Amino acid sequence: MSRPLTDAEKLRGLPWETARITLTRVYNALLLGAPFPLFLAALGLAKSRIGALTAVLYLVAPLSLFVAPAVARFGFKRTFLIFYGTRKLFALFLLLTPWVKGQYGLDAAYWFVAANMLAYAICRAIAETGIGPWYQELVPNHVRGKFEAITNTVGMVCLLGANTWAGFMLGGQAGLDEYLVVMGVGLVVAIPSVLCALPVPGGGPVAQTPGGRVHAQHLAEALRDGNFRRYLAGTGLAALATTAWGTFVPLYLKEEGGLDAGTVVLLGNATLVGTLVSNYLWGWAADRFGSKPVLLLGLAATALLPLGWMLMPRGSEAWALGLAAYAGVSAGWGLGANRILFTGVMPPEKRVDYWAVFYAWSGLTSGASPLVAGWGMDLLQGWHLPTYPCFFGGSLALVGLSLVSFAGLRDPGAPSLRAWLGARLSRKPH
Description:
Helix content is 80%, strand content 0%. By secondary structure, it is mostly helical. It has helices at 7-31, 35-43, 47-59, 63-74, 76-93, 97-104, 106-138, 144-169, 176-195, 212-223, 226-242, 245-255, 261-289, 291-302, 304-310, 317-330, 332-345, 351-382, 387-407, 417-426. Helix 8 (144-169) runs antiparallel to helix 13, helix 13 packs antiparallel against helix 14 and helix 14 runs antiparallel to helix 19. The chain is globular, with a radius of gyration of 22 Å.
């Protein structure tokens, strides 16, 4: 059964957690990052179908609401390891897609990918129902911002190498074989990412977990928390605005921006560098001044990205490079959003129920983003209207609404800026 971890145990587990997160990010970048929508487009799929396949990853997230008690009884760590490992099998089947297309046609290939993505997403949803409470238990709050900053920094350095290799592999007139090589290497990286979770402490079974009716009551209690509802509104609007960027910005840069697939993937390195140079500062500021200022400032900066993409001159690699680096700098809002969830919004004693609600909601809104965007762009194209300006304009409006929602969010765990300034000013020189 689960027992409280000592700080010494937590700190010993953090390097393994950093390694797990880093390898997972490399795996995700190579398999389901920018190469994935480009691979689907190279197969010949329409934007609505590409958006639907991306959305499947998120739309099964409400499964978390139903499996959370069973996950808690079985153990967060065991659940995560089993389902996190199993999903790799369905990712492996994606490499057979060109063969399926060649044998049975494009429609069959689409449904083949959809079936495997659905099975992959179900395993992902169950695994991540376990990782949230386990992660909150593992990382001490007083170093959470710094830990996330350090983990992000290590991850960015590794992703730089992975993106550079993938970009050169997909440069010029890349065919389906090159995409399959990149995705295959991502799957190889996935194996040690599972193994690195084994030495991480915590995540044991919860001794007493509620039955179905009581669990439903606990979920309802979480939704009656006004501060939590405001957090859900803010993250939902931000997810609707930004999740589709990962799917359609690479296509935009290739179709409208005049860049080849390799260059589009390599632009991810500029984003990584931007994140790398700003990440520790965001983490330090979150620990020192609280999560909310970092969240609001980073999200406000992110609102400028759609404007930059709309104004980009065709074929301007320098413009695209600058925007990609800026995207990395402004991404600090995600660190603030994560930190405020674990330290101020989600009570540790109610983490199973709050996490289940949050995960389900974030999945629905994240899944709706590429699904609605892909469907809408196909519709606009049929009407001979500008698709990408409408897409970016809608994103900008949603980011603005998210800022309004987050502005009223309370952060009970935040340090007092006034107290910190007072302490600094009252210090006497030696």
